[in-house]
Design a protein that fits this description.
Shape: globular
Radius of gyration: 21 Å
Strand content: 5-15%
Number of helices: 15
Number of domains: 2
Strand order of the largest sheet: 2-8-7-6-5-3-4
Bound molecules: pyridoxal-5'-phosphate
Distance between the termini: 45 Å
Structural class: alpha/beta
CATH superfamily of the largest domain: Type I PLP-dependent aspartate aminotransferase-like (Major domain)
Length: 395
């Protein structure tokens, strides 16, 4: 089924003000997400924070079911966090490494994850190794399979990196991880909300994602999936009395579900917004969303290829809806600011966010445009024209 773009736009206050092509930064929240949060905050002010939470207990509890449905997981495998980074860290730092243990990752791994690898490698003597790419610049599953031995403790990759449309073959990696019994941690931040992301198909043990990007939820939300049979062996690096109730003076007992990775206090308005955003995406259908994201980003890439001094840097035969370009000798931050003054939201992707990939490909800071299903073909075309005019005027 195709999406009713006009209806979806009338549901999205932001489209009246800006051409928003920064969904890889933060998607525009639809009205139901906004209403869920504003309504809840109003109740907090009117009747009190604890009382509002009690009143909304059923809806708050349903957020776990919504995310479980989105991921094809069970609700007790889901933890809610204040961002994806914390979700990833809590799981990663729960893993035990010994000297010589190998951590396999991909070239376009996100900086936050990579610095954590570096810290743990320094502390434990584990080693970090980068899985080679195929000639298209996509992670090569055959190369990964050839690297596996008994010292491989973890495969941790980003599915869709922050710095371009590359889609790593997350499910093929999962099949290899499963076949060899290696723990597989998948950063799905830029994929969730943009394409189907089902853990049974991906074969991952741990998945982290954010609410604010293609899911169109509020900022400061994230979630963690941990496969049930791994969960039992994972003691969070930090606990409180929610994660692990204090049951005797000298004893605590970890929760049995993934909420052992949570703490007691939470932003319930944000949680409700996240849940509503997930329901919204599920109602539209992730296949339909992906189809439209593909079409709009292909149109954008085609248009940009015709603009003098622009080069498109997205890797792979089937790129996702993150379009990154260099703009010749122009300063991408200045171009971004000029575009903002004309009503176009884009962002700048810096080499330091995916350092290995940026160095290997000698990438400068890139202008990043990330459309979503609620953008129109006309917006894409106007953006390309505006950029072309702007760049020619700056020469
Ligand atoms: C945005 C992003 C993150 C961080 O998500 P937060 O919710 O901001 O913590 C992690 N990994 C990738 C690939 C991202 O693009």
């Amino acid at each position: 089924m195709s999406l009713d773009v006009a209806a979806l736009r009338s549901d999205t206050p932001g489209v009246a003000h800006r051409v928003h092509l920064n969904n890889a930064g933060a998607g525009l929240m639809p009205r139901p997400v906004l209403d869920a949060m504003l309504g809840y905050l109003t109740r907090e002010a009117e009747i009190g924070g604890y009382e509002a939470a009690a009143e909304a207990a059923g809806t708050l509890d349903g957020v776990y079911d919504s995310i479980a449905r989105l991921l094809g997981a069970e609700r007790d495998e889901i933890a809610l966090t204040e961002n994806a980074t914390i979700a990833w860290q809590l799981a990663f730092y729960a893993l035990a490494f010994r000297p010589g243990d190998r951590i396999l990752t991909a070239r376009a791994e996100y900086a936050a994850n990579y610095v954590a690898f570096l810290q743990v490698a320094r502390r434990t003597g584990a080693v970090i190794e980068v899985i080679p790419d195929d000639p298209n610049g996509v992670l090569d599953p055959e190369a990964l399979a050839a690297m596996i031995d008994e010292r491989v403790k973890l495969i941790a990759i980003t599915w869709v990196p922050t710095n371009g449309g590359l889609r790593n073959p997350a499910a093929a990696v999962g099949r290899i991880a499963r076949a060899h019994g290696v723990t597989y941690l998948l950063d799905a931040c830029q994929a969730v909300g943009q394409m189907p992301a089902r853990v049974d198909e991906l074969g991952c043990d741990i998945l982290s994602a954010t609410g604010r990007k293609f899911l169109r939820g509020p900022r400061g939300t994230g979630f963690l999936y941990v496969r049930r049979d791994l969960l039992r062996d994972l003691e969070p690096p930090m606990i409180d009395h929610f994660a692990a109730p204090w049951i005797a003076p000298d004893r605590y007992e970890l929760r049995r579900d993934a909420r052992r990775f949570e703490t007691w206090e939470n932003n319930y308005a944000a949680r409700l917004g996240l849940g509503r955003a997930v329901d919204y995406a599920l109602a539209l259908g992730l296949d339909a969303i992906e189809t439209r994201c593909r079409a709009l980003s292909a149109r954008l890439r085609d248009g940009l290829r015709g603009v003098p001094s622009v080069a498109v840097h997205d890797l792979g035969p089937d790129p996702a809806a993150i379009v990154t370009i260099s703009v010749g000798d122009h300063d991408p931050d200045a171009v971004k600011a000029d575009l903002a003054r004309s009503g176009y939201n884009v962002s700048v992707s810096r080499p330091s966010s995916t350092l290995l990939d940026a160095q290997a490909r000698r990438l400068p800071a890139l202008l990043r445009a990330s459309p979503h299903y609620y953008n129109t073909e006309d917006e894409i075309d106007r953006f390309v024209a505006a950029l072309a005019t702007l760049l020619s005027g700056r020469d």
